[in-house]
């Protein structure tokens, strides 16, 4: 049963990967617990190899945690059969990846309409075009992703998410491959997505990008180290520095 | 790494089978010339037919597979350019890689051919009037010539692809910009025109030849028409695929919709499969159609209702190599492309596609390729049988076209099953791949 206003509940999430040659498994996440509320824009930061992307994949159901539970909109996704998990991903979750991950053989319009097509919902062309206008790509509906710039492709990826209006949007380094101006546009769009009862969880190494979030979680060695509310980029930097130097709080 | 191994192994196997196939006419020619008797000359004549059919199959299949090999590795070549390797050097390295694969594959194929072909050919020719007593053999030099021909075909096709890969902007490749059709098209139209002229000339002489009791050209007209269609493949295949698949409403199935888009977008890989399947089905189909239609005409001329000599062994010898090569080419192209398909499956899963959606998409892609090849093969067989019956009717009124439905259905069925298996096995092998690792494995 979901608590009021809580879209995501993770409890004691752990993830380890098998090591080569019979050695002990490598722990990527160690007992991570967190909540994400409706309307929140949450950023996860940490040094390289800290486990932030693994955490995002476990929270979103792209990877199965070794132990612990992840509840999205009242559904424990760690207990779901693959088909149900796919349905949940399609209907309640959206993804924005660093490398855009659009389907290259589909046009911009077809990419944005893909989730509706997959879930056999009626295709609303006007809504798709409206979403493309919203991300500033109204004139590119018939283009293929490969003909667009990185910033434009990322905006298509966000349009795909916005068009299906999921409860939760997971973004993995969404500005990692973009210049400052294109990155700012993408962050504005993600900020907009965290409204109307929806939320965004973003992994980033860009502290300026993280400072746009309502809440910032600092992760180190697979464990949550600090939680900051509406911090400045300087405060995030200090927290990351402390996490790299000191023991886990 | 696995993806690269799959690509190189696929092209290696195809080249090896091409060299094995080329060893058949090489052995017959060498034996026939050494024998020097009338029976020996008959062997050389059989070898001539096999050479035409194997030549069509080798040029089409080896050529398209070599081009696919380069196309599938365009990303690696683009990455080389981003670290400062010059386009000329990229081309040189690509050609060297292809040369190594072609030489190694051809050497193996020709060596196996030298061991197996003599006994197999003698077995196939058992009962064939006059030639069944000849001991067939092939010298190392004969096998080397067969291997060298395949290496030359592979390099000619590969060099053009390497030149285009080296000229393509690395950014264009890395951003997966839709491939522009930059290849020169006029040589294809010229070659197709020349082949068509040969076909017309053979048709023009067919009636007189049949009236004299021969008409052997009838069995080569169809395979040459296959070559015409294959040469024009880059222009013909996408159009045929687009037209007939448009008959299925886009909303009928999401997996069909995505498969159609993939097939039309990744035209390099789908055309390779279609070209090989076309050869696998239409070469034996049109050969049998020509043979059947001619037999009907000769029967009318002789007043016997058609000859019924058992030529199944000779037919197997003539068609076995080209069909084996074409079927292997289609299967290899499918398996070689499966790495790209695994990533596409992961992209779809990330977008919320249900389990099995990637598999369904891959199978629909196979259906589109098989269907396109079947339509084109049916057209070639129909044109062959129809045109020949019209020409032969001038000297043998009442000649009916033989569309060789049994031959076409048999080779089509076997090829279709092979392609579905070649699609199914690698796709199932990647089914449980975790999405993030599939997407990161670019």
Notable traits:
heterodimer; A: 249 residues; alpha/beta; four-stranded antiparallel beta sheet; 8 helices; 35% helix; globular; B: 16 helices
Q: What would your notes on this structure say?
A:
Chain A has helices spanning 52-60, 82-92, 108-118, 125-134, 150-164, 180-193, 207-210, 233-245, and strands spanning 6-17, 26-37, 41-45, 67-72, 75-76, 93-97, 168-172, 199-203, 215-220, 223-229. Chain A is of the alpha/beta class. Chain A has one domain (6-245): Rossmann fold, CATH 3.40.50. In chain A, strand 4 and strand 5 (75-76) form a beta hairpin. In chain A, helix 3 packs parallel to helix 5 (150-164). Chain B has 2 domains: 1-181, no CATH class; 184-442, no CATH class. The A-B interface holds A 53, 57, 62-63, 82-83, 86-87, 89-91, 93, 95, 97, 99, 101-106, 110, 114-115, 117-120, 123, 144-147, 160, 164 and B 172, 175-178, 251, 254, 257-258, 261-262, 264-266, 344, 347-355, 357, 434-436, 439, 442.
């Amino acid at each position: 049963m979901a608590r009021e206003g809580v879209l995501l509940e993770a409890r004691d999430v752990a993830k380890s990967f098998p090591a080569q040659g019979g050695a002990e498994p490598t722990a990527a996440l160690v007992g991570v617990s967190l909540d994400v509320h409706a309307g929140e824009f949450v950023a996860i930061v940490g040094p390289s190899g800290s486990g932030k992307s693994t955490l995002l994949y476990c929270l979103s159901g792209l990877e199965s945690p070794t132990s612990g539970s992840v509840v999205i909109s009242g559904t424990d996704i760690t207990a779901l059969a693959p088909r149900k998990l796919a349905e949940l991903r399609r209907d309640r979750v959206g993804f924005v990846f660093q490398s855009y991950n659009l389907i290259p053989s589909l046009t911009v319009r077809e990419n944005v309409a893909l989730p509706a097509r997959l879930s056999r919902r009626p295709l609303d062309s006007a809504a798709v075009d409206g979403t493309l206008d919203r991300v500033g790509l109204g004139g590119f509906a018939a283009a293929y992703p490969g003909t667009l710039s990185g910033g434009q492709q990322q905006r298509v990826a966000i349009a795909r998410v916005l068009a299906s209006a999921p409860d939760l949007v997971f973004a993995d380094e969404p500005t990692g491959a973009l210049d400052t101006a294109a990155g700012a546009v993408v962050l504005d769009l993600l900020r907009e997505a965290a409204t109307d009862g929806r939320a965004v969880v973003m992994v980033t190494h860009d502290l300026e990008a993280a400072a746009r979030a309502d809440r910032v979680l600092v992760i180190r060695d697979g464990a949550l180290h600090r939680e900051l509310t509406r911090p400045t980029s300087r405060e995030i930097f200090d927290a990351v520095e402390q996490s790299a130097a000191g023991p886990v709080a | 790494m696995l993806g690269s191994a799959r690509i190189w192994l696929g092209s290696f196997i195809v080249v090896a089978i091409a060299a094995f196939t080329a060893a058949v006419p090489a052995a017959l020619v060498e034996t026939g010339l050494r024998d020097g008797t009338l029976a020996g000359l008959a062997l050389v004549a059989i070898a001539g037919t096999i050479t035409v059919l194997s030549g069509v199959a080798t040029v089409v299949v080896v050529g398209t597979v070599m081009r696919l090999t380069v196309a599938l590795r365009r990303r690696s070549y683009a990455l080389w350019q981003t670290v400062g390797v010059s386009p000329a050097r990229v081309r040189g390295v690509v050609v060297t890689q292809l040369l190594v694969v072609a030489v190694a594959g051809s050497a193996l194929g020709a060596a196996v051919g030298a061991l197996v072909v003599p006994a197999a050919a003698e077995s196939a020719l058992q009962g064939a009037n006059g030639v069944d007593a000849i001991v067939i053999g092939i010298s190392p030099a004969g096998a080397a010539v067969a291997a060298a021909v395949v290496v030359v075909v592979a390099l000619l096709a590969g060099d053009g692809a390497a030149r285009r890969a080296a000229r393509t902007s690395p950014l264009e490749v890395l951003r997966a910009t839709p491939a522009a059709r930059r290849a020169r098209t006029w040589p294809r139209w010229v070659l197709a025109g020349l082949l068509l002229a040969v076909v017309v000339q053979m048709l023009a002489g067919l009636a007189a030849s049949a009236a004299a009791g021969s008409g052997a050209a009838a069995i080569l007209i169809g395979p040459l028409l296959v070559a015409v269609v294959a040469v024009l493949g880059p222009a013909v295949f996408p159009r045929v695929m687009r037209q007939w698949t448009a008959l299925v409403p886009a909303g009928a199935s999401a997996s069909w919709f995505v498969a159609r888009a993939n097939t039309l977008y990744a035209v390099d890989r789908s055309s390779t499969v279609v070209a090989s399947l076309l050869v696998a089905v239409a070469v034996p189909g049109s050969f049998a159609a020509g043979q059947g239609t001619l037999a009907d005409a000769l029967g009318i001329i002789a007043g016997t209702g058609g000859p019924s000599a058992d030529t199944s062994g000779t037919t197997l010898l003539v068609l076995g190599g080209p069909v084996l090569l074409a079927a292997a080419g289609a299967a290899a192209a499918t398996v070689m492309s499966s790495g790209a398909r695994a990533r596409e499956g992961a992209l779809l899963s990330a977008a919320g596609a249900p389990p099995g959606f990637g598999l369904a998409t891959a199978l629909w892609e196979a259906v589109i390729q098989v269907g396109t090849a079947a339509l084109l093969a049916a057209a070639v067989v129909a044109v062959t049988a129809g045109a020949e019956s019209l020409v032969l009717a001038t000297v043998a009124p009442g000649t009916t076209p033989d569309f060789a439905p049994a031959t076409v259905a048999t080779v089509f069925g076997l090829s279709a099953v092979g392609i579905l298996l070649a699609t199914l096995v690698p796709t199932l092998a990647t089914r449980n791949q975790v999405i993030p690792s599939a997407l990161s494995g670019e």
